[in-house]
Amino acid sequence: MNIEPVRKLPWSLRYAALACACVLLIAATAFLVIRIAVLVAPLTMAIVVAALLAALLQPVTELLDRWLPRSLAALGGVLLLLAVLVVPAVLMWPTVAKQASELPAQLEQGWGRTQEWLVSTFGVSEQQLSAALDRVGQSVQSSAPDPTASAMSLVEGVGAALLALVLMFFLLKDGPKIGDWLLRRLPEPSRERWGEAAGNGWNALAKYARGTIAVAAVDALGIGLALILIGVPLALPLAVLTFLAAFVPVLGATVAGAVAVLVALAANGPLDALLVLGAVILVQQLEGNLLEPLIMGKALRLHPAVVLVAVTAGALTGGVAGAFLAVPLTAVVHQVASTLSAVRAESPGSEPRREPVAAGQ
């Protein structure tokens, strides 16, 4: 094969062609990995959630390991997680059930006020509103999930949750041993740099989990207090929704805020809906400009555009689960790749990168 014509090309063109080829290869590999992960979505979800929770609870396990055997320390981490999840749910259930039973009457009253406001402000007739509601109802019915598929999804979700708990226990109990076993499968010269990269990726995962929980708690507290002060029904479940939605960056906060505004509009009318919208915007601005830089620090080091693309790609390929897992996976991959690049650049055998000399120098 004659490569002389290639050598005669400008270095910039050759570099651009090589970069495009690398991008295409990475994109094709990522697409293949994502498609395989989607095909086994419950297993993928269980593994990633187990890793997230294990990274979050590792300090607790290490603390208990000083006085207890490793197995009991890991079990203590699992029991702590279950207590954190179950106890608030049990305490909140009576309030949520009571508010949910009162919601239909409040929605009916609020919708009547909203209809009057729409007719008086925009001149919309009641017939037009009824026709629009009929179209919305037909769309909702047509997009409603099949009961059989919903039951299967519920079974898969329960199975994935149980598997995640079991995997989390073993990661807490034997995490270092599992890491050492995986490293021994690699060639000896590359074990050190891959071990450092894996450690940095694990630390990024732990920082992301802790930072996201802290930010989500502050968001839920702020939105919940605003809803209580404004007098919006279902303030507690809406605060819980805000907490859970914070684990899906960008899109989650938008969806939770929209739900809160819609509930306020239907139950209390347009004025309270505008107040809730202002509270949601204020809390989100405080989160993005103050809380995330302060709490998250450099745990992610990802540009907001990268986060948005990752969440969108995850949602398109894996639905809600994909959107939830996209950012932590992206952060881990970015941290591992950055560490490998830095280690390779600092290795004794690597040559420093030579910058091209501009013409005329």
Automatic annotation (TrEMBL):
GO BP, sorted A to Z: transmembrane transport
Claim: Chaperone is one of the keywords in the record: no
Key words of the record: Cell membrane, Membrane, Transmembrane, Transmembrane helix, Transport
Segments traversing the membrane: 12-34, 40-60, 72-93, 151-172, 213-232, 238-263, 270-286, 306-327
A Pfam family it matches: AI-2E_transport
Membrane topology, from the record: Multi-pass membrane protein
GO-annotated cellular components: plasma membrane
Primary subcellular site in the record, as a coarse category: membrane
Subcellular location: Cell membrane
Family label: Belongs to the autoinducer-2 exporter (AI-2E) (TC 2.A.86) family.
Protein name (database record): AI-2E family transporter
Organism name: Paractinoplanes rishiriensis
Organismal lineage: Bacteria, Bacillati, Actinomycetota, Actinomycetes, Micromonosporales
